[in-house]
Amino acid sequence: MNQPLIIARAEEFVKEQLGQDTTGHDWWHTHRVRSTACEIAEIERADVFICTMAALLHDVADEKLNPSKEAGLLKVHTWLTANLTEEEQIRHIMLIVETMSFSGGGGEPMQTLEGQVVQDADRLDALGAIGIARTFIFSGAKGRPAYDPEVAPREESLQKEYRDYSKGTAVNHFYEKLLKLKFLMNTAYGRKLAEERHDFMLNFLDQFYKEWNQGR
Fold first, then answer.
1. pTM of structure
2. Sorted alphabetically, which SUPFAM superfamilies does this protein's record hold (predicted)?
3. What are phi and psi of 145, to 5 degrees?
4. What is the C-alpha separation between 176 and 4, in angstroms, rounded?
5. Which of 36, 47, 93, 156 is the most exposed place for a label (fewest CB within 10 A)?
6. 56 and 100 in contact (C-beta within 8 Å)?
7. What pLDDT does 164 receive?
8. How far is CA 136 from CA 23, 66, 78, 88, 147, in A?
9. Is the pLDDT of residue 30 over 60?
């Protein structure tokens, strides 16, 4: 199996699927997740090829970007069966993609080291400066305000609540999801990378509230 060729095909497929996305789930998000997953995989001694493929394909199946979760998963499975011959690799990649979603914090735990690596890489891209930028991009795309002091953050527990984009604000999303991610990292190296990004977000929020309340 020519792994570099298959990876290149996957890259082109993902660019076709996500190249026009304006919600923060575009090709460059995927590219960063893939790069971070490879970095973590090297440190944690995971299968780099499996991590690479799952990282590249994870958002193609995202239910936020498809008519349904099932439709997204079918799209990924169809591509994999057309491009990979080893059934175990297909099964492993699909298992990771199926389990990737945050789902309000209530998703199933990853069953393999490779899945833990890719999930950590995806969560890291929701943290730090990049995570802040993506949060405001996504909220703007969904018509949510940046901040409203009269709207309190929700305690997210059910997937239905988490996917209700009509409520909430960008700043509330920090408390509903982003600031929880550091404590949900799977790998030791992922936790190390999350620390700095988590602290950066806390500093951002401090400055945000300082400026919001200036002169009051």
1. 0.90
2. HD-domain/PDEase-like
3. -70, 160
4. 39
5. 47
6. no
7. 56
8. 9, 21, 33, 39, 10
9. yes
Which among 119, 172, 180 has a CA at the least distance from the CA of 148? 172
Which value, to the nearest 10 degrees, does the dihedral of the CA atoms of residues 186, 188, 192, 198 take?
A: 20
The residue type of 216 is R
Identify the weakest region by mean pLDDT among 1-5, 11-15, 86-90, 178-182. Answer: 1-5
CA distances (Å), origin 130, targets 26, 32, 76, 180, 212 = 13, 10, 26, 16, 21
Rounded CA gap, 157 and 150, in Å?
Answer: 21
pLDDT tens per residue, range 121-171: 999 999 999 999 999 999 988 899 999 998 888 875 434 444 555 578 999
DSSP 58-126: TTTT-GGGSS-HHHHHHHHHHHHHHH---HHHHHHHHHHHHH---GGGTSPPPSSHHHHHHHHHHHHTT
* DSSP secondary structure letter of residue 154: P
Q: What DSSP element (H or E) covers 208?
A: helix 188-212
Question: What phi and psi values does residue 44 have, to the nearest 5 degrees?
Answer: -90, 0
